[in-house]
Batch of 2 targets.
Target 1
Amino acid sequence: MQRLSGTDALFLTMETPEWHQHIAGLTVLDPSTSEDFSFEKAVAHLESRLPLAPKFKWKLKETPLNLDRAVWIEDTNFDLARHIRRAGVPQPGGKVETAELLSQIMTRQLDRRYPLWEFWYLDGLANGRLATVVKFHHCLLDGMAGASLATVLTDLEPDPPPREIPKAKTSAGREPSSAELLARSVLPNMRTPMRIARYTAEAGRRGLALLEFNRTAEDTAPLTGVPTTRWNAEISARRTNAFTSISLEDVKKIRRKYDVKVNDVVLAICSGALREYLLSHDELPEEPLVAGVPVSTRSADDNELNNQIANMNVSLATDEPDPKARLKAIAKSSKASKAMTNAIRAHQIQSIGETAPPLMLNFAIRALARTGALRAMPTVMNTVVSNVPGPPFPLYFAGALTTGMFPGSVITETMGLNITVLSYIDRIDFGLSADPELVPDLWDIADGIPKSLKALMKAGKLGKPTKVEDPFGEPM
Amino acid sequence: MQRLSGTDALFLTMETPEWHQHIAGLTVLDPSTSEDFSFEKAVAHLESRLPLAPKFKWKLKETPLNLDRAVWIEDTNFDLARHIRRAGVPQPGGKVETAELLSQIMTRQLDRRYPLWEFWYLDGLANGRLATVVKFHHCLLDGMAGASLATVLTDLEPDPPPREIPKAKTSAGREPSSAELLARSVLPNMRTPMRIARYTAEAGRRGLALLEFNRTAEDTAPLTGVPTTRWNAEISARRTNAFTSISLEDVKKIRRKYDVKVNDVVLAICSGALREYLLSHDELPEEPLVAGVPVSTRSADDNELNNQIANMNVSLATDEPDPKARLKAIAKSSKASKAMTNAIRAHQIQSIGETAPPLMLNFAIRALARTGALRAMPTVMNTVVSNVPGPPFPLYFAGALTTGMFPGSVITETMGLNITVLSYIDRIDFGLSADPELVPDLWDIADGIPKSLKALMKAGKLGKPTKVEDPFGEPM
């Protein structure tokens, strides 16, 4: 038995049918690198790696009336079959159909009576490909410092030597492999949009020093007076996902040309797509949109999670029609925000979950949710753009080559759109998550991303965008 | 606004995460009879028929603290997209994979914030086939007297003339088509296992006159002292499904040979499969298993639902090793039960939902469930075997030929196995529903059914079973 940390307990308490607290990683696989890849092999692989992530065999025990934080207990009836799901991607098995299935998976809450994760095996993708989805509750990952299931599932070669499985029930003292070290730096970041949105919301409610800083600093994005879009509204229980991919080299070309950061180019590409989308609906706000951008602040010897991620609020300069001018404005705002972020660390905000009495917190949050007070909060950001640097070399799952990795991310009240960006080998993959009742045409935004890249390259006289292979196996 | 009937409200109140109150019909389709069958056409067809089932646009409004029965209100934000789901059947797309996907669909509760149904479109079945699943809450169908969505979705020809859509919000005054009349007589029966199990449980709790009758009547199956099997236990939230098909003509041959009823032959075939299954686990009880068999008692001019279905408890004579002797014992028990059923109608039992104050009922049922009292109830039947006569001619959905229809049925506490049998053209299709934590190897029972038929035919010197086409499109 182990009591949940205050933050983890907060994630549980705040979960409502509309406001899910689970996240997922979808991995597209090409099984042709393995002679005997199959559903059974995938499950066996999963099972063999499970001891490396002991928390995946823990389940919740919530205390009566929520008088205290819930505790983790070992699931003595643990049955892997309860966590394995299988489905096919509808024909023709492209990224649209894969995203549709991921949306269905994301729309459903996890069953709190069992360890809080599911593993989905999806076949029927184009070109013989398939996908796996690991879906897990935010409170399961939080505080795990990288020992997540997703982390331990991949290898750097198709047929790696067997991993040493530790005898201990926790993996605290284990020497991590190089693949794990890599994965630790990449995968835990996938959960940041949620946390950041939460921190920022918290900041908004508590009227922190952040506001004061913001009034006096120049060029930083506003924390009040952020415009509202169609997706900055009350969210429903449903989720929709869309994906797109562009060439990493194209982004680097733009970065070099304008002497900005890769992240600024990513933001400018997203900004162009969002601007065109809102223009086409005749809904572009006069004030520029503001993105929450998670940044890592973790030092090398720091393995605590509560101060490794901070948030920057960056203006997306959507009021600027010229792509070059927009990129420059974003880079300027980003630089100013970075300075602010260094001054005020996010961990000052998080402590509410650790210090407030759980009963009071439960009542307060439920009351806020019921009275709609959370919905009445001012918009503090329009979207999250989370840019996660991924491995520049191939990863394998049970022998099958990973051709792409896409998140099912968390959206929150008044922030019904999330863009998470992951680089992989020579490509940048975009995963968009939204509420379909607010953004029924999410693919229009996704499809606007390569167009936005094209416009930016054209403005910089950098030629045409490089054609990239589709990770879902669809012909170009 | 319309208040739920007491029975419908009871189905809502009794629903727990383990004890689902939804049912589903899976229809396998061969789209080659339609030139332009597609997902979009299927959805358009569904939409065009929706006005014939007005309750599918109603949603629940539960009263605070459940002080009174919930009411139905029109969902003024009705959005068809919320109810449409799409997935592929995993490869190779046979009946095993289709059943696996149906199990996933059945395991999830419906979202009470929207009209209580889902329509699933599943492609990727063998031989170019696909399937649809209509999943709906029991309380949605109850009292609808046949105006269910499933009822209005099929036609007798691939390209029927457009149906007349009534202007009125309810279909009470509408003239039903011949297809509807047919479907009304067939499809509503698919929900009977649940209701019957409930009635019987109710009877068990209340110690009705049934017990008295049973003590004095001869040859009837016992209502107390029913043996317990591995699946007569506490059920989990999970569901598993399995299917099999045999030739209708083979069953009729046996019926003629022994001068019994078709239903007796079906029971004997199930009995043989269950006996072999339990023997192989070395768990065959000494006492014969008892099946609950729903029978229709509705007269032609009677359109009330509350007395149209009754239950017979029939001995499955699983203590009898000889197939012929087993069939004869079942026929005898069945005849005696029929007489008893005619004497005591099920509607005497149902009235509790109509008369008890809702608040008291809520508390009482929740208390029973929480304390495990429901689980401590004696086993009143081992399984339900529901035999539904289906159409002897083809049905079409949006132009696509229906090649098979299989239920996802309800299982209940201490009755974790349901066998629903539907005849269609020249075939009898078996749909088995169970809790995988109690019956992880449900396919062994399903596969035992054709073997049981074979043994019965051999014992009667009736030759070998006829080969039947697989409705899922798999090669023989």
Target 2
Amino acid sequence: MPTEKQTITLLISCPDQPGIVAEVSRFIFAHQGNILESDQHSTNQEECTFFMRIRFGEEGFTLSPTELHSKFQPIADRFQMQWRVSYSRERKRAGILVSKYDHCLVDLLWRWKMGELAMEIPFIISNHTRLEGLAQMYGIPFYYFPVQRESRIADEQRIVDFIGDTVDFLILARYMQILEPFFVNTYPQRIINIHHSFLPAFIGASPYAQAFTRGVKLIGATAHYVTNQLDEGPIIAQDVIHCDHRDNVQDLIRKGRDVERRVLAEAVRLHTTDRILVYENKTIVF
Amino acid sequence: MPTEKQTITLLISCPDQPGIVAEVSRFIFAHQGNILESDQHSTNQEECTFFMRIRFGEEGFTLSPTELHSKFQPIADRFQMQWRVSYSRERKRAGILVSKYDHCLVDLLWRWKMGELAMEIPFIISNHTRLEGLAQMYGIPFYYFPVQRESRIADEQRIVDFIGDTVDFLILARYMQILEPFFVNTYPQRIINIHHSFLPAFIGASPYAQAFTRGVKLIGATAHYVTNQLDEGPIIAQDVIHCDHRDNVQDLIRKGRDVERRVLAEAVRLHTTDRILVYENKTIVF
Amino acid sequence: MPTEKQTITLLISCPDQPGIVAEVSRFIFAHQGNILESDQHSTNQEECTFFMRIRFGEEGFTLSPTELHSKFQPIADRFQMQWRVSYSRERKRAGILVSKYDHCLVDLLWRWKMGELAMEIPFIISNHTRLEGLAQMYGIPFYYFPVQRESRIADEQRIVDFIGDTVDFLILARYMQILEPFFVNTYPQRIINIHHSFLPAFIGASPYAQAFTRGVKLIGATAHYVTNQLDEGPIIAQDVIHCDHRDNVQDLIRKGRDVERRVLAEAVRLHTTDRILVYENKTIVF
Amino acid sequence: MPTEKQTITLLISCPDQPGIVAEVSRFIFAHQGNILESDQHSTNQEECTFFMRIRFGEEGFTLSPTELHSKFQPIADRFQMQWRVSYSRERKRAGILVSKYDHCLVDLLWRWKMGELAMEIPFIISNHTRLEGLAQMYGIPFYYFPVQRESRIADEQRIVDFIGDTVDFLILARYMQILEPFFVNTYPQRIINIHHSFLPAFIGASPYAQAFTRGVKLIGATAHYVTNQLDEGPIIAQDVIHCDHRDNVQDLIRKGRDVERRVLAEAVRLHTTDRILVYENKTIVF
């Protein structure tokens, strides 16, 4: 398999108006960038917002990161853009938080080792010690941070202090704790959670038990960015699997694991490849 | 295509205990019935309930319907069974209620004409006149029953009076009215509704608009028996389709139509072939 | 539902090189076009080919169709583009050919009436008279063109003579005849067929019977452009449905109808919205 | 999670005739067995064959394995049954063969450790040493058996000699070798292979490259019993995933891994729970 060429990705949002695509693509071309992918979307409401993702080859592009910033900013100002740039050679750093269940972590680590997920994993944090061996197997530092009901805030503060800005985003790979607002606010739109239901159905605890009681004919999983409204953050990816009356709660849990790990991995893949823009508690996934 | 052989179907539920399958199958065999399908299910709770569907050929079976009843009742009594029997040559009579949207009705009528749905359709009732032509095309009597907010109970009473017991079950093929309790109670577990969301998400009005606002990545449809808790009756069938940020509410409606009609048709097929048993607000679908 | 705004779509393919997106988007912007959608793709082979679909609003665009042609051609020449343009207000004309099975036709006509398929249907041609009533119901001229084994070429010639260039493309909605090469060559990449298997499995006649014999656990349907290699033209859309040992050939046919009609409708929708480019017997579907 | 109760499963096939279900269920009941599941199927051809799977609790059942055999054989003789019995407390022994790719093995071992697959794994055999560490991690003996083109028969003979009858079945978890007829014949209907296409499409080598060349819009995987016709044995399970023009061969391989491991695990689960009967190169999966 040949080495992937390095690329640069621009993510842009701004009020819609004619000329944005022309100007951005002209800018890239003027500095010898070859556009590889270009996606755009406009909301169809009164105040139309425009979103764009454009990916171009780094090889041959004549601007350094600093130059790119200083030269693109005037364009951004003209169109009132919010924008960010990322370089594929700077792999994102993903901190993983887990509790006791291993299926999402096993899957993420295996995909990561296979090269499916372009990221670094500086650490795995858990409120249990059970998965330490798994982390070691992949050579990833594992840190045990117990969280107690009565000292939750202090416990979480220690985690945030530890993490600081050593990561680009966090993955809650079935981390069975509700994060405090100060924690969530430290990493806005940068914490990906997997919830084991097709949200907004079955918010909160024990969604498989809820699903069993309701007698649904499909169960699902939802990956979303964490906000301070429980299970109500912007949805990144969802999928379902069929079930029937033969499935008891244990069966739903078993079937659900397959969906959870697949949906979480997909969300992480989308995030690491800069394909997600958040807009009004929704995501645009290019 | 050869003529389908006529069959008899027994649906049974009772407290679980050994010997039920043996006794029921012995009974059928003793009277020359050849068992074609047999399904069973036991709930795995403290008080275990047993459910069974057994279908056997009518040809050669030596008992008349009256004899079947009188001779099977002692077995039913012994095992405290609730049971019912149906004959495939007595096609179920399905009354259909619609409003203005035609996609579910178009699909049901086409499938019915194709022979996919073994039932009679004695009438189509609507609170609008728009779909009268469609009914006529298939030669089905169409009755216009307007329902006004201020006279809802009287209006619905006229419908119930009209229907009486001329049907075995009712299909709400996007009938955009909430039925009064007396109406629902007249046809318990005999009214099939299609709700245009993957319940329990998006109960109530405008589920596609709700789905758009929430930013879900899949939309769905749910066929269920109507109870007096809005959209909370026993679920018969569900399915979903993927969507993304490019889909506005109109797109969700368009995509959703495909799922709605498929899920409703499946639920009707299951009902007409006596494959559904209701248990604690859930369904067992054999 | 508000009236859709009219749009113009450019479809382009050319050898890949930097600057294409910049130049095309500059051109559109220079003439006051507001870009609504833009998709691109490059083949990753030695001789890289670039494909682009760009859709922009017609309102405000300052070039007439003739002007657009003459002013864009120099750009096209410079980049060695193959290109075509289409206007949404000029709905494509789709001639439909059917035999006896009605499920695809019923579905296409219903979707068309609902506004899901932006096209005109100047005629329906059939080698049987069975579906004439259906055509009449939708007010579409129906023509009976019998095709005999011994006079096939002459029979098909009469069809081609009749159609001439009164259509933009043809839909074989389960037209159970293999078209002669001269027929296919008259409408290259403009005849959409639905084959009732997941190609390349089960090429040729009776795919459901073949599927039953092989004992597959899923059946499918494939919409493709017709070429002179039977069932080997560029694939536009495919889908499958699960089946099991309980399904006999009739069941497979019944289940398959649902997939066939959905896949064919999707392919037609993609074609009418200029989303398909053909490349080396494959399709790029934007 | 409570301990699963131990069960006994009977798998039966015989010429169809009335009374089979009655007799088998009577037999089980007469010896105090409580039937938990019962499935049956009849082929609808001239010479009708009947298939049955019946599972009942071992607790309370009054016959020892030897007694069950001797007392059931007269019934089997009367109905000309082929039959076998299995006890859930005797977990099946599954030998696994792999080459270099680890995704199927990783998934099988993880599911096995989670309790999803009720079997023993006495060994893992490979023609490469790459996956030895993975085997050790799960404490499973790993044996390296190189297979050379020029000594294939002798090499495979050594494997068969080694395995002997220490297993109940074999799993080819992407074992990239075509087995010699004598090997296959040693374990008839007891070798499960995963083929990385939706068979019968893309038989043989490099199915993803074949799929890319053909331009299909979905790729799949097929688990089947190995016979001496390459990739033509009885299909146990199949599934697909959508793909499009953006997917190159590497992407198809990546997407396909997800389907392969899921389909193989499902087939193994079905085999270990005695849910599969083979009939005329097809499977009946209860």
